[in-house]
Amino acid sequence: SKKLRLILGDQLNIRHSWFQEVDDAVTFLMMEMRQETDYVPHHIQKVVGFFLAMRNFAEELKSLGHRILYFTLDDPENRQNLSDQLSFLISTQGYDRFEFQLPDEYRLDQILQQSCEKLPIPSSAIDSEHFLTTREFLKEFFKGKKTYLMESFYREMRRKYNILMDGKEPLTGQWNYDHDNRSALKDQKMLKKALIRPKDVSEIVEMLEKSGVKTIGNIDAKRFPWPTSREESLEILNYFCENLLTHFGTYQDALTTWDPYLFHSRLSFSLNTKMISPLEVVQTAEKHWYVHQNQISIAQVEGFIRQIIGWREYMRGVYWAKMPEFGEMNFFGHNRKLPEWFWTGKTKMNCLSQAIGQSLDLAYAHHIQRLMVTGNFALLAGIDPDEVDQWYLGIYIDAIEWVEITNTRGMSQFADGGIVGTKPYVSSANYIKKQGNYCSNCAYDSNKKTGHGACPFNSLYWHFYDRNRDKLEKNPRIGMAYRTWEKLENRQEILDQAEMYLNQLNDL
Ligand code: FAD
Ligand code: SF4
Q1: Domain shared by 454 and 305, yes or no
Q2: Which of 266, 307, 318, 459 could lock 497 by a disulfide, CB 3.0 to 4.6 Å apart?
Q3: Is the peptide bond preceding residue 324 cis, with omega within 30 degrees of 0?
Q4: Is residue 216 domain-shared with residue 87, that is, in the same domain?
Q5: 292 and 380 both lie in a single domain
Q6: In terms of residue numbers, what domain contains 476?
Q7: Averaged over 67-79, what is the pLDDT?
């Protein structure tokens, strides 16, 4: 018998049970496809990162003795989409069984189901052995509930995997230290450089150019900065534990022009391609903390672990519980186009120019830049969530729909009406000013709501609340904002200022 097994670009999990024994009857199939480069314009570093990581993975499997069929994007035999390639291979190469790992994306799930129906041989799926829960776990866990509270899910994961636990209780008696984790960074000298092992990726960049793949963003092809193997990913994880974890939580929400990565781990691409697993990441951090408890406070390690076994795992569960409807949700009915400067970074608003400029250069922005700068602005300005999703799905090295759309449409744009979050994440300039130095170098005045040079966030913030009163006023976590709004004397002036900005979004 001859088996064909598919490995998708985000299934680079060398510890999967598939690879534990070499079997000559099994051929592993990997392909670089136009189907994947073209479903949205991606950042060039994202496409390069995926292809290089896939090539490295194929080499590793080969060196272990596995049989691999790898199609580069420019291979003349490459049919450029999964369905046609499978039909072609199966009709010409005499396979009698097709197997795949459950994909993370709804889109690929559909493609695979439809492709399998057309195949003349039996097919079956197996778990990707990466996540802590199954696709269905969260839906079952919250059965009958209208909102899915992340915190209860997170506690369940802590218990289930015995992470930072003392028997049935959280270690130190407290589950969550989020309140300690909100500081602005005051001292530039505290920063440590990110660990980067630059690689020459000219060959892949040339291939993409020759093939006419449309990409966004910038790349230095001689110095590609992202990890593309398990070994490099583990090196970054260890560097993080030894150098960055001590301040991770405290400065997680800092916004500054001093450094793009601050104390963040840069592990999302390694995790999302499954080069490393969430459990090994949190167990490594936990172990490191145990040994260095005198230097690293629990708030740091708890904050980090919560992002991974809490937020990341939770988002995946929400995705499978709510797709495909989730992708259509637009609670506020927002319908404006994304301003053109989202694609260039050329805006006078310093916070946005920094966060977008950095995203174009590095295919990276940290969580608070995504949530409270770009996401916040898009929500206040009433941008169509489809446009917002497309942008986030293209621009980040770690953007795969299951984790992008739940964060963007859900957490950031509140387009799900409150499945992921209990209230919209919006702020005026006050928050951005408090978190760092963006406002001190801006053409706009963070203290002004109206008049010449007033920061757009200030009037748009009140415009957002005012125009969505019927949808938000009854939310117990928001009532306070309306009481403050009622007390402002120049309400009409603020709304007029906002209207003026909304009518010239491209010129801000
Ligand atoms: P760190 O700050 O070091 O965090 C450690 C890890 O925790 C991350 O690598 C990531 O795996 C996980 N994590 C942290 N926050 C989240 C979260 N909210 N949801 C899921 N996992 C989380 N993350 C993606 O992986 N892909 C996306 O496409 C993506 N899109 C986002 C869009 C918006 C609008 C927002 C607000 C957030 C998005 N995030 C996304 C979550 C988060 O911003 C990134 O995971 C993080 O910035 C990656 O950088 P890091 O590895 O240095 O993270
Ligand atoms: Fe952003 Fe307003 Fe601050 Fe300028 S003043 S950096 S636009 S928040």
Answers
A1: no
A2: 459
A3: yes
A4: no
A5: no
A6: 340-507
A7: 97
3-state SS string for 168-221: CEEHHHCCCCHHHCCCCCCCHHHCCCCCCCCECCHHHHHHHHHHCCCEECCCCC
**What's the CATH code of the domain at 55?**
3.40.50.620
Would you say residue 330 lies in a domain? no
Q: Is residue 187 within 8 Å of residue 437, measured between CB atoms?
A: no
SS3 state at 28: strand
For the stretch 176-217, pLDDT in tens is 998 877 889 989 999 999 999 999 999 999 999 999 999 999
ipTM of the assembly? 0.99
Q: Is residue 132 part of a domain?
A: no
Single out the residue in 126, 156, 190 at which a domain terminates.
126
Whole-number Å distance, alpha carbon 268 to ligand 1 midpoint, is 6
Q: Indicate if 286 and 151 belong to the same structural domain.
A: yes
Q: Whose CA is nearest to atom 3 of ligand 2?
A: 439
Ligand 1 atom at shortest distance from the alpha carbon of 252:
2
Residues 369 and 440 grouped into a single domain: yes
- Dihedral of the CA atoms 420, 149, 396, 332 (nearest 10)? 10
Q: Is 508 in the pocket of ligand 2 (CB under 6 A)?
A: no
| Any domain includes 160 | yes
pTM of the full structure? 0.97
482-495 residue pLDDT tens: 999 999 999 999 99
pLDDT in tens, 315-336: 999 999 999 999 999 999 999 9
The backbone torsions φ and ψ at residue 386, rounded to the nearest 5 degrees and listed phi first, read -60, -45
> Is the distance from the beta carbon of residue 267 to the nearest atom of ligand 1 less than 6 Å?
yes
CB count, 10 Å around CB of 128? 19
Q: Is residue 394 part of a domain?
A: yes
Residue 156 has phi, psi (to 5 degrees) of -60, -40
Determine whether the shortest distance from the Cβ of 349 to ligand 2 is under 6 A.
Answer: yes
Taking a C-beta distance cutoff of 8 angstroms, is the pair 83, 111 a contact?
yes
CA of 238 to the centre of ligand 2 (A): 36
Q: Is the CB of 406 under 6 A from ligand 1?
A: no
